[in-house]
Amino acid sequence: MLAFWRHLFRRDRPESGPVTLGRRRVYIIPTRSGIIFAVILLAMLIGAINYQNSLAFALTFLLASLALVSMIHAVRNLYGLRLTRGHPQPVFAGDTARFALSLENRNGPARFALRLMLDGQQPITLDLTQNGGQWIELCRHAPRRGYLSAGRITLYSRYPLGLFHAWSNLNLAMSCLVYPRPDQERGLPPQMLQERGSAGDQGRGSDDFASLRPYHVGDSLRHIHWKALAREQGLMTKQFGGGITEELWLHWEQLGNLGQEARLSRLTRWVLEADELGLAYGLSLPDLAIPPGRGERHRRRCLEALALFGLVDGEAPHGPQ
Amino acid sequence: MGRNELALTPPGHGRLWLLGALFLVTLPHLLRMPPWLSISCLLIFGWRLLHEVRGYDLPGRWLRYLIVFIGIAAVGAAYRTLLGPDAGVALLTVMLCLKLLELRTLRDAMIALFIGYFMVVGGFLFSQSIAMGGYLFLVVLALTATLIALNHPAGRLADYRLYLSTGGKLLLQSLPLMLLMFLLFPRLSNPLWSVPEQGPSARTGLSDTIEMGSISNLVQSQAVAFRVDFDGNVPAADALYWRGPVLWHTDGRRWERMQMPIQREPPAFEVLGEEVAYTVTLEPHRRRWIFALDLPLNRPRAANTAFYFLPDFQLLSEREVKEKLRYAMRSATAYRLDTLSPAMHAAATALPGIANPRTRRLAQQWLEEGITPAEIVQRGYRLFREQPFYYTRQPPQLGDDPVDEFLFSTRRGFCEHYASAFVTLMRAAGLPARIVAGYQGGEFNELGDYLIVRQSNAHAWAEVWLQEQGWLRVDPTTAVPASRVESSVDAARFQSTSSLDDGAGFAALRKLYRQFRYGWDALNHSWNQWVLGFDRQKQLELLRKLGLHTASWGWLAGIMVGLVMAVVALIALLTLFRRPPRRDPVARLYQRFCDKLAKAGLPRQLDEGPTDFAARVSAARPELASAVQRISQLYIRLRYTRHGGTQDIESLRRLVREFKAQI
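The joint structure predicted for all components is written out below.
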């Protein structure tokens, strides 16, 4: 019994792999409606005893049995579900982080009115058909840069009768990288554009087209091979050999008069601007320098460095930004 | 956590379900309530329906309060009270309807539904018949389906089959548990507190006074008076006299009972033949007396009721019989009863007033002839056979000297005419005599193996006291020969307990109808006996049969809880830990293919479709490309299109096998 309570209240260690809801992961308590139902059953029982009414007895017992059976069905509605975490796409601070999650009903009948929620967030509701599966996204506001953990995920349901609340808490070790919020001020400072050096064309031009590959979420729209789309070959992304013709350095020191978070915010904006313009850019932070480059991967690397700057274990900084 | 969910609006399809289910549950009550009240309730249902379908506004707060006030006042005005089952259930019905006008949240809907369940119990207060039981079980199914619909936000009206089948499944799984609780829940032999009167409000059956014409009205009714299960053989038809009120006092027209001290045990008498053991299930008749075969040997045994005897062998229950009453009895059909106290002698010979002078003269004449009392009884009996007396259900009206008119002029009458005329004649001759009212005969239901006694079996006969024989039963009606009986039904009454064999026209059809009627009656009888009549007594009987002799309250409760938990665990095992159904072969084969590739260092990503995966594998291991493409295409064809049959599954199996060998 003690072990049970410890199990019930312990903060589960984060799990990475797919989780199948087994016997020891689904809990159940009566809902408030369930308690009202019990009180009404008691009133019925007293009536049945007093009037010595056999059918009233039978109905009271039928409804009590119904409640007990519905308890089993409430557990079954969650039992055996398999949850797999997705990989959340990075977002900017102030946006909404979306944690994708796959629910699979591998063995068992259809499930109804399943509700999933992140701690403190609105739940989303879904049904699963027999042997069906579904990807869902749980959203949470991302206030600060750094890693935003999904935190505890609660899967619960009151199906079928609303008399019992069955739930399971999951900690799926899902975190979303949150980039600093880009500064409102748009555009790169003109002096930087002039300063940009010529570290050298390494023989591969910017339009040194290398190959086509299927489109992935996050690819720059400018690199989509629109002609291929027009030929109904699907969304393809052009890949470039990546020669660097123009490059610039985005320096931490250039923003001497700003605070740390404001600097990161400005640098984030610059990275986006530079990427938009198709420029090659490098990022120089006090403890890190990323040599100039361009493209999706480079952009991500720079933004990640900005997101995690000065943070221990990627924890979001506390206090005012 | 999720507590505010109850504050959400219930889903639209759930609200329509709720309206329908609540209508079904209130319907039996609406049919019993005063029509103007029922129509008002229906109008409120209509209002809510228009709100749901057409978006009509519901009343504002103050209007709602006003309507609630009017509703309570209306019930009070209609029933003159708000207490008791009638007014209480009517009030609950009206309030439930009014709740529809302010039902907004899921919490409101759930509570309205729970009250709906409660109203089903209200329905059982008024009728516990099989038909009502069946109807209300369907109502419970509808209410349960509604509960599911309310808790399924994504549902639509078209999902009704899902809700009905899920509700039905839940109820079916509940049945074994219900049976356990029903059989084992410790029953009290007395109510917790006294309950207001209920049951049929009109008295039915025999009355405790007899006037000429009172029984002939009763025999028109085919209603069941009581049913009898015999433990052994059924006595002969001519012994089936079911004793009821015994009437002593008369004013010449009307016969009444006599005030006598009650006693716990039957008065002593001499048993001459075999004893008959049987159980009577008496329909409620709102009177205190109960019926037993002439003459009862023991105090009846029944749960929650005590019984008393009167010295003339009338059996009384301690209170009016308002519910079906079952009691076990033993009787002796052949007996010798000598008891005649001076008070009884005086009452049994009294013939007050000057009414019926010709009858008195006839008796006087017999006495002057100097014949013995036994011969006087014979004379009296033979009178009805030898003179042209007719047995009819439509006797003519009688004037101030009813016995004189019946004996000497009209000569047409029913059993009460014959009994009262005979007793008057005997008393005029100085012999102690009394009228016994009760039932005679009955139909034997072979399907259920019991006797049905109907109101049409109501009868009255005479008892005369003779020095040598004690009280002697004389049924003067039987003196009338069959040729002078008007109705063939009446003619058959004393012939046989079973009247199945009348060979007239439509015999087969009539037989079929009888069979059906007996079948239905037998079903009702079992229902009464085993469902409605299941009380402490029956519970103990059942436990004794199961070998549990000392079943105290606590023991019983413990056994019940234990068994219920065991069954719940069993249902849980069957539903939760059932072996998972085999996945379909296509998925299994493809999984095998992916597993093999994962071992070879090419695991399929979660978000990777079969096409992307195949492309990636082909790029990484060009030598496998053709096999991978073929397997993937076949898989897609089987999985995502309507084409593909068993031969495709076979070729997929072959390809995967070859692939595993190849890699």
